């Protein structure tokens, strides 16, 4: 009897794992196909799609596609642009949104409730519904740069950065987190004579690690994967980020091996980063759902 | 905790000011602009001054008319018939072009037609492509919202088991969320390819070559479905994680109580799990709906709205006009229409899913 029961349990466990693995295959096969194809010459890549060879590093394997991709388009420049825009936006966003949330939670000031309500109300406005008028506004805004005062932000870094620094979701996440911190701690620091700047830097921010990670990861995903906005505001190659560069790259030629190499180049580092910080990534998405 | 130590108008505005200003300029202002510009003929660059045009943009986009054609008659009033005896109808063009009897149909084109009674009825639209875009977007939302939410819940329940290595599976299911939708769309172009696509090869292998090869993105009947399937594949992990965090807020004591009562698996789900997920369900439905209405990147990379406008969407039309044709007012009008749709639907969803006291 005992053996039959345990066999039964073993079988059920096997079925469970079989289901889990089958679903995992569905989610992962295009990514494996992408990476494996990036090592293959075009003809072999196409032939391999008829068999499991599509997912295996077999045949004429080389890094030629990567070398050719760099020759074909300024891939390094695109990656640099994306990393710059993403990095600067994430850092400024963390600073400005955390400061705002600090003011909303810990400081008493006139207009606090009204401004916070207005900011949270913007959560129901999808970016896609303001993109077109924003394009008009961006084409007219002034900028004080190295060449003095100029008008029009099209084809620049700032047009990709400044509109995305402050957003309702990031401020919301910080506000939620700060509300759970003990308010007495902040008041005590004030009573003892700490300036507001010191309270922000020395008391609150050292406790904000988890929410900083969450906000940074969400902003990183949004910024690195930007497509619609840079498509409209960046025509010059010099400021083009990776996702728009990709579309351009694709129209330029149908060398599939090179396209797969480019896709792998801009995706695999993000995937590696994700797998390394997997728990933090998933926790950050989960926190967007709390008390929403 | 209002005290003299925490009160400071200056510090409050100083710290919240930058964020408030940025949101005012880059979210609130364009939102107000969208509404204002939709009543003008503003272009991105134009030598002519902008003019107020009233509701013309809305009429141009949303104007529709229904027309039942009467057969042509001779001087005596008898119906004219062609060689096969079928009644002869005037052409649509004779009605919609310079016909003083039907000023309301001027400039319209056929959207679709049907025959209820004796004579054919035509539904005309001033902008047929935009009408198709609205219909396609609604189809996308109506399919994606329940299917994606349901699959995500299934995955969350699957992942919520205590099994060795379950975190690895969770990490894999979530992986496509991290990958740009643009990259995903390009990869899936390869999967859906008509000649050497992976999907066709797989179906051919499974059916021993019996199934015909289909150009999934090239056929009007399959293109939107193909994009729907891919979109769900890419985003389902996101909502799986949100369901999962909802599942983990349900108190384990409830499950223990259900186990003591000897409840079946379905009963546990129906009476313990599902009621505990109520707020999560509302949130997920609203988030998916909002995301689905914004459908753009997949279309731009995979089909460009084709074939035969079968994958046109509202945002794709807004961008094609506002950016492609530099018609800011037309693009803004579409944006306003989109916002009104999204806002009304989320209100309806909130109403339907409200707590019944």
UniProtKB/TrEMBL annotation, chain A:
InterPro entries in the record:
MetI-like (IPR000515), MetI-like_sf (IPR035906)
Q: Which GO terms describe its cellular component?
A: plasma membrane
- According to the UniProt entry, the coiled-coil residues are none
Q: What is this protein called?
A: sn-glycerol-3-phosphate transport system permease protein UgpE
PROSITE patterns for the chain = ABC_TM1
- What role does this protein play? Part of the ABC transporter complex UgpBAEC involved in sn-glycerol-3-phosphate (G3P) import. Probably responsible for the translocation of the substrate across the membrane.
Q: Which residues form the ABC transmembrane type-1 domain?
A: 79-277
Source species: Devosia insulae DS-56
UniProtKB/TrEMBL annotation, chain B:
Membrane topology field: Multi-pass membrane protein
Q: Where in the cell is it found?
A: Cell membrane
- Mind telling me which PROSITE patterns this protein's record contains? ABC_TM1 (PS50928)
The record's annotation in Gene3D superfamilies points to: MetI-like
Every copy of the ABC transmembrane type-1 domain together lies at 134-349
A Pfam cross-reference name: BPD_transp_1
At the top level of its lineage, which domain of life is listed?
A: Bacteria
According to the record, the signal peptide region is none
Record-annotated membrane-spanning stretches:
12-39, 133-159, 171-191, 223-244, 280-299, 328-348
The alphabetized list of GO BP terms reads: transmembrane transport
- Give Gene Ontology CC terms: plasma membrane
Q: What keywords are annotated for this sequence in UniProt? A: Cell membrane, Membrane, Transmembrane, Transmembrane helix, Transport
Please give the CDD domains that the UniProt record associates with this protein.
TM_PBP2
Checking PANTHER family in the record gives: ABC TRANSPORTER PERMEASE PROTEIN, INNER MEMBRANE ABC TRANSPORTER PERMEASE PROTEIN YCJO
Q: Which family does it belong to?
A: Belongs to the binding-protein-dependent transport system permease family.
Please report the name of this protein according to its UniProt entry: Sugar ABC transporter permease
Q: Which organism is this entry from?
A: Devosia insulae DS-56
